[in-house]
Amino acid sequence: MKQIECPNCGAVFDAKETRCPYCTYINPEGAEAKYLRDLENRRRELDSVDDRVRSEYRGEIRKGTRTALKIVLITALVLAILVGAWFISENKLFNNDRDDYAAELVWEHEHFPEYDILLESGDYDMLLERIAEDGETHDVWNWEHYEEFTEIADSLWGDGQ
Ligand SMILES: [Zn+2]
Asked: Which of 13, 25, 66, 74 has the most neighbouring CB atoms within 10 Å?
C-alpha cells in the first residue's frame, strides 16, 4: 500500500485517499485514481445495461415470433372451419337439390298420365286449368305432350292465353 505525505499538514496516509483524513486537503493522485475507478464502474454498468437491453430485445423478438405463429395458426383454424362449414352447406344444398329433383320426378310420374287422359279425351279446358295450376309449383313443361298441347291451346284460344 503506497503512502503519501499531506502537502498541507504533513500527515502520512494511503495514496488512494482522495483527501487527507486529517485536514481534508485534496490528494490529486487519489482523486484521479477514484475518478478512473468510477469511470470504469460506469462503463461496466453501461455494458451490463447494454446486455440487458439486448436480451430483452431478443425476448421481444421471440415473443413476436410466437405471436405471429399464433396468428397464423388461428387464421388457418378459422379458414379450416369456414371451408368445412362451406363444404357441409354445399353438400346439404346438393342433397336438397337432389331430393327436390327426385320428388319432382315422382310427382310427374303420378300426374302426367292424367294429362295424357285429358288430352286424349279432348278435355282441353280442364287440361289447361290443371297445367296452369300445377305449373305454379311443378315443371309441367316436362310433360311429353306439353308443346303439342300449347299448339292446341293457341289454335283454340289464340296467342297470349
Ligand atoms: Zn493534511
From this structure: 13
